[in-house]
Structures are given as C-alpha cells and as structure tokens.
Amino acid sequence: MSIRHTGLCRFAPSLALTTALTVSASAALAPAAAQEPSAESESQVETLAPITVTGPETRNTMERQPSLDRLPTSVQDTPQGISVVPRELIEERNITSLREAVRNVPGISINAGEGGAQGDTLTIRGFSARGDLFVDGARDPGQYNRDTFNLQSVEVLKGPSSLLFGRGSTGGVINLVTKTPTMERSNNAEISLGNGPFFRGTADLNMPVGPTAAVRLNVMGQDSDTVGRDLVEQKRWGIAPSIGLGLGTDTRFTLSYLHQEEDNIPDYGLPYVFGRPAPVDIDTFYGLRDDFEDVQVDLVTAKLDHVATDWLKLSNTLRAGYYSRDATTTAPRVNAAAGTPIPAIRVVRSRPSLESDTWTVNNNATATATFDTGPIGHTLVAGVELGYEDVETRRFGFTGLPTAALFDPDPNAGVGTPRNLTSDTSANASTFGVYAADRIALTDQWSIIAGLRWDRFSAESDESVAGVSLDRTDTMWSTRAAVVYEPTDAQTYYFSYGTSFNPSAEFASLSAAQVGLEPEENRTFEVGAKFSLLGGNLGLGGSLFRIEKTNARTVDPIDASVTVLQGEQRVDGFELEANGRLTDRWTVLAGYTYLDGEITKANDATLGKALQNTPEHSGFAWTTYEVLEGLEIGAGAYYTGDRYANNTNTVEVPDHWRFDALMSYTINDVRLALNAYNLFDEEIYDGIYQGHVIPAAGRTLVLSAGARF
Questions:
Q1: Is the distance from CB of 270 to CB of 688 less than 8 angstroms?
Q2: How confident is the model over 512-544, as pLDDT tens digits?
Q3: Whole-angstrom Cα distance, residue 79 to residue 449?
Q4: Tell me: the pLDDT tens digits for 266-279?
Q5: How does DSSP assign 107-159, residue by residue?
Q6: Which of 59, 242, 239, 202 lies closest to 707, judged by CA?
Q7: For 61-359+375-414+444-459+471-503+520-708, which CATH superfamily applies?
Q8: What's the predicted TM-score (pTM) here?
Q9: CA distances from 324 to 144, 293, 359 (A)
C-alpha cells in the first residue's frame, strides 16, 4: 500500500476510518490465512491489482530524498543544512515566485536589482547567491523572475558546495526541481484574483500514454500590479511540456522544455536620504512611465537515468538554455550634502539600459556505486561536468535626464536625449570539472565523507566600444569532509568542512581591474544535528557554522584604482528549523537564523564593518490547522532584522515584521482559498541595494479556486 499526498485534499477522516476497518478485518482473518490452503482454494486464488491509497503525507522534509543524483542520501542523512520548500506549501500558500518561496527558508535575504538587472538576486548566510541558482542541478544564469508554475520543490543547500556545483556557492546554492511526468493520471487547474489588481491562471495536466510512458503540460499566465506601488506591473506567461519514457523501469528518459516571457514595468524603489530610506509615502515612484523590461527564457533538458546493476546507478543531464533581456529602467539617487533641508532635495534619475542575449550548454554525468570493502561500506559518487556560456551585452546611456522632486516625482517627465551605445561586450566562459566523494560506513552508526573536485574555468571578453580584449583561465581544487554519527534512524549528528571559490569571471565577464586576480577562496566549518520525531512526522534541525572568505577582493593600499586579494570576511552563525505535523490536523514550519558577519581585513573604510544585507536576526513561523473536515486556517509571521545596504555601513535599512494568513475549504476535488499577505499593511523595505531600496507590497488579498479532474 502506498500513501501519497494530493495537495488539494490533504485530510481525509473518512479514508482513515475505511483504512482502519480494512486493517481490523485483515487482522481478524489472519489466523485463517495462515492455514494450508486446499487444492480447491488454490485453484480459486486470484491476484488482485495493487491498491493505491490517497491520504495525509508527512510534511517532514528531513525524510525526503534530494532530487540531485549527487546527493544519494536523505536530507536527514546529509551532513549539511538543507531546506526544502515542497509543492504542498507552494500550493497551500499560493506562492508564485522563487523570492516568495525562499521566505520559508532560514538564512536567505533578498537583494534589489542593479545596473538594469532585475530577476532573482539573493543572499545566503551573508554571501551573494546571484550566480548560485540551478534548475534540476544545471546552472541557471539568467536574470529573470523564476515562476513556480512548473516547480515540484525548491531545495536550498547551505554552505559551500563547489564539490558538487563548481564555482560559487560561498553561502550555498538554490536548486529548483521541476515537475516531471508520472504514471498517474492527474489534471488540475487554478485561477486567482486579488487586489492590485492581481490575475493569474495555471494548469497542470499529466497523462500516461503507454505502459511506461507519460506526458505532462504546465501552463501559466499572470498580470498583476504591486499593491502600494504606483505604476509597477508584472506580466508573464509560460509553458512547460515534458515527456517521460521507461517510467518505472531501470532505464528512464525525460525530455522537458520551459518557455517563459515577461513584460514588466520594473521597480527600482526609493533612494536613500542621509543613510536611511527616503521619508516619503511608500507608493512614491521615481521611475518614468516608459520604463520597461522584456525577458524571454527557453530551457531544454534531457535526462537519462539507468540502473546498471544492483550496486551501480548512472545518470546524465544535458541542458541547453537561451536568455534574452531588453530593459530600460530608472534608478533614483540622492546626493544631497549633509544639512540640506528635506523639501529642497532633488532626486537624480540614473537610467541603466541594456540588451543582452545569453546561450548556455551544460552536461552533468554522474555515477553512484554502493559496495563493500571487507566490513566497510561505501557509497561513492563521481561525476564530470562540462559547461559553456556565451553572453552578448549592449549597454546604453542617456543625457539630459530630468531630476525629480523628492515628494512628488513626475513619471511623465522627458527622458533626455535618445539612448546612445556605451559598451558592446561579447564574452564566453567554459568549465570542465571532475569530482568524486565517498561516504564510508565504518560501523552502523559512524561514517565519514571525503570528496575532491578539480575545475578548469576559462573566460574571454571583447568590448568593441573601448576596444578592450581580456581573457583568464583558472584551475581550482574543492574539498569536502565530514564525520557523521547516527545512533538511531531518527537522529543524525555531524561535523563538516568544505571549500568553494569565486573566480573573477564568475558571471562570464571580465574587467581590467580584476582580470589579473586569482579566485577568491572560501571555507566553511559546520556542526549540526537533525531529528525525525513523532513517528517521522516532525523534523527538527540545527547547526552552528563559520564561513570564511580568506582572500577577499579589496583596494590596493597604494593605488585605490587597483583591486587586490588582501581582504578577509567572516560570518559566524547558527540556525534552527522545524517542519512537519504535530497532529494529523496541525502542520508547522518555522526557522530562525543568527548571523554575525564582519569584514575582518580590508584596505579601505570597510574594515571592521558588517557585511551588507546580513541581518543579525531573521526568522519565520507558519502553521495551519484543519478546523473541520476540509476547512483549514493558517497564520504566519516573518521577521527580518536591521541590515546595512553597503559594506561601509553608511546606509541602514530598518527591521520589519510581516504577517500572513490563510483560509481554505476543500470539497471533493474543488478547493477555494483566501490568502492574505502583509495582513497588517506594514511598510516593509524588502529588496536592498547600496543605491536604492525596494518596498514590499502592501496588504494583498488573493482568492483562488482550483479543481482536480
């Protein structure tokens, strides 16, 4: 008997009663079944098809298996912090974007866009994760707003993961797990309406087309304004077909495609005035009415999984991607001298404009072998990664842009002269990585992990306007080691160590100031524990960690125009997380992170300062309860502490609380839900950058109706 979660009707008392009666009947018949059958009864034996029972599934993500072939054990058995945002939570809370999803992960802060770039820019444990986003284990470098319509879950791996992913991952990585075809026929559709206004529709159709084949189609359309932000608008649509062959067999092949387009009026928020967000109404918009952001994303993924023997599994993932971006935005800046009267301040409009096209190809081949050498068990994972990125970027500038009044900016003001080309860059980067990691079981309770990876990363850049050509090649080793103690199946204690690196051309671009620099090097020490309680229904985890960047980029002490690797940065912290069910009717998700981030060595004014966008305290708690059969209520609180917008700590963003709520009712295969976000309409400064801060949406109410058929 298998139990799975439908997502739409998660509580089924009538099913529980039926199951109890069935078990009781089986127990009553057990003695008779133990007797030798007669020849007549043997002739009448009929083999029945297996029965699949739909019922409540644990929300304890500790017991889940990560989607990555490179992580062969469960979340609980893996010696590093891993947070999972499951599909159940995404549907329950009507989460539509990656940024909303990771609010349910401790240790993540949201950044604002810069230089014409928007999309998902996040910070994990005090370090930028802009280049650490992956889809099904393949790097996803595009600057776009990742929608959840085709996501099965979001996995956040804390700490350096260069052993598994190559460059980057100082604070961790975020892996988006997409939906794939299954052998169970299932169809659902949902529409959502809200203030703003907010309009959204999605559909998820899965159909078996043979004994081991199935197809799946996900579609999405959204048109929404941001509550409390004048003129800001997001329009996007997407389609994601996929086909699976050999499902349920030893050889499985999946081919999938994602197409997403955006047509937005982007938001660069408010400027800072004397080190704090401008003292204006939260809806004040300093952009121009003809600001725009057009984005297109196309991803094609082919994955082959093969169980070669009972001890060897092979997999290969091939990804081709194309990202197109055309954006002209307005970023507000205030450069007023100290003591200037607030009403006299004028806002300077910076207008970054760019066109970019990015092509990527990535292939990951992985082998997982389980075997023994005498009394010692091994789980060996080895792989090879090949990657290539080609980026064409054209940047434009404007002159004669009008300034704006601080309290009453005019979005219809002129835009100055037509934009003129300021740079035209063609860049490419290639990577080759080979790695192996072995989990060695010394006893039933003690195991150690040792891993090593070698990367070769090279980049070339040609800028035609200035006539500058640059290139660089780096080779780096990454290591991982851990000791794991598991006295019972429900307890895991570990100590881990890992390294990572950030090359100068991490984003497939080079500058004259940094082309001569070796990669930045990072290391993390972490000790933690994970538990599955209440019969596996509740997961608890906690960890203490230190992250060190041992050769951070800083200015040359003699020539401030030159960058050198003479800095050091450190983050000390601890993290707590709980998720799962307290009872069949009561779910809980909570997390807290303490971060003490400091620039411990530098040749400039950042020495001794706190790392930007690294709040000392942050946390959340979300809980739901089924009051009556099908009727569910939920509530949650999210807190982010004070944080600095720059490493000199001259600009500070205040802390904030956000409160959300939910009410839903499910009858048969229809679910109605009302979600409230920022219920008390707090003024929240959400995404931050050193030049501006983006306010979060005001009180937002979204009514949704979904049906399975």
A1: no
A2: 888 999 999 999 999 999 999 999 999 999 999
A3: 9
A4: 999 999 999 999 99
A5: TEEEBPPBTTB-S--EEETTEE-TT-EEETTEE----S--BSTTEEEEEEEES
A6: 202
A7: TonB-dependent receptor, beta-barrel domain (2.40.170.20)
A8: 0.90
A9: 9, 11, 9
